[in-house]
Amino acid sequence: MIRVLFVCLGNICRSPMAEAIFRNYVREAQLEGKIKVDSAGTGSWHVGKPPHHGTRDILEREQISYEGMKARQVHKEDWNSFDYIIAMDAQNMDDLKDFFQQEEGPVVKRLMEFVVDPAELDVPDPYYTGNFNYTYELVSNGCKNLLTYIKEHESI
Ligand code: 4NP
Q: Which residues contact 30 (CB under 8 A, 6 or more apart)?
């Protein structure tokens, strides 16, 4: 089983969007039995809450399920429970580094690092920008490329 954890700040906008979109790509590729997907936030403000209404609107428009998803905070066991920890921006990367303080372990990268010539390396936070459509475009493209990368590198 390949285990993928998406991480953002609040776990209500970007990383739940990525989790739902990536799970949908995994389902379409019939890889549900081989890839496990989750998301978490570096912050704790929204623990237990469903995705932000802006993220829910986008997912409903795209007919992508977010059923049962609830925000949680990153915890120490995640380091050994995931093969890929995929951050949305450089601040998440810094926070993860400070939190885990480990070198050996999962692949820890920003989502847009999997895209060739990305428009942005950081996924802008729609909690502040209000632009959930643009976030969706970046996250959707990033997730597609991440799945291609995992299929190529994990012999699945
Ligand atoms: P996210 O967006 O990291 O994409 O989930 C945010 C959501 C909430 C907050 C910050 C970012 N907040 O400060 O409450």
A: none
Q: Which of 78, 89, 95, 125 is catalytic?
A: 125
94 has catalytic annotation: no
CATH architecture of 2-153: 3-Layer(aba) Sandwich (3.40)
**Domain ranges, ordered by start, for the chain:** 2-153
pTM over 0.70: yes
Ligand 1 center–CA 118 separation, angstroms: 22
pLDDT digits (tens, 9 = 90+) for 48-98: 999 999 999 999 999 999 999 999 999 999 999 999 999 999 999 999 999
Q: Ligand 1 atom closest to Cα of 12?
A: 5
pLDDT digits (tens, 9 = 90+) for 104-142: 999 999 999 999 999 999 999 999 999 999 999 999 999
The DSSP result for 83-123, as a single string, is SEEEESSHHHHHHHHHHH--SSSSEEEEGGGGSSS-S-SS-
Location of structure tokens 């950081």: 122
